[in-house]
């Protein structure tokens, strides 16, 4: 009987902990859902993904805070309107600046992180479609796909995104 009470207490405490922790991550999941469903991803959303990944902001921060964090970190040249749709070359540049320069192409490094060369490099790597235009807008799903491909390609092993497929 005593064992059953201890077991029930442990289950109850575990459920309470899971409920509390799920509330902490609810904001992040809501933001990702909004990004996935966006017909045009915004600068705020792209900056949010980059800033959270780099731990420049917490995942419950606003999109405007994310833009400001990247601007203050010197990763974007202007403080974009968080609600404005993001152009593909800007998305490429924001994503490329998430990792050390040695992961980027030589022209991207030489030009100090040019949008043009970030876009061209990701296009050459096959991360961005060859038929795409640098000034086009993309959906939230496409922006997340580009980010995931960049993480697989450029992220260090500690981030756990290196996927080695055995043949």
Q: Gist?
A:
This protein is mainly alpha-helical and 167 residues long. It contains 7 helices and no strands.
The major sheet is characterized as: none
Helix content: 55-70%
Which strand-content bin applies to the residues? under 5%
* Count of DSSP-assigned helices: 7
Q: Measure the end-to-end span.
A: 54 Å
Mean pLDDT: 80
| SSE ordering | HHHHHHH
- The global form is globular
Query: What structural class is derived from the secondary structure elements?
Result: mainly alpha
Count all strands and give the number: 0
Poorly predicted ranges: 16-27
Question: What integer value in Å does the Rg equal?
Answer: 20 Å
How would you describe the overall organization of this protein?
The chain is mainly alpha-helical and 167 residues long. Helix content is 57%, strand content 0%. The protein is built from seven helices and no strands. Helix 2 packs across helix 3, helix 2 packs parallel to helix 4 and helix 4 (88-96) crosses helix 6 (115-124). The N and C termini lie far apart (54 Å). The model is unreliable at 16-27 (pLDDT under 50).
What's the SSE blueprint?
Elements lengths: L1 H36 L5 H11 L9 H10 L15 H9 L9 H5 L4 H10 L15 H15 L13
Helix pairs in contact: 1-7, 2-3, 2-4, 4-6, 4-7
Key descriptive features of the protein:
single chain, 167 residues, mainly alpha, 7 helices, 0% strand
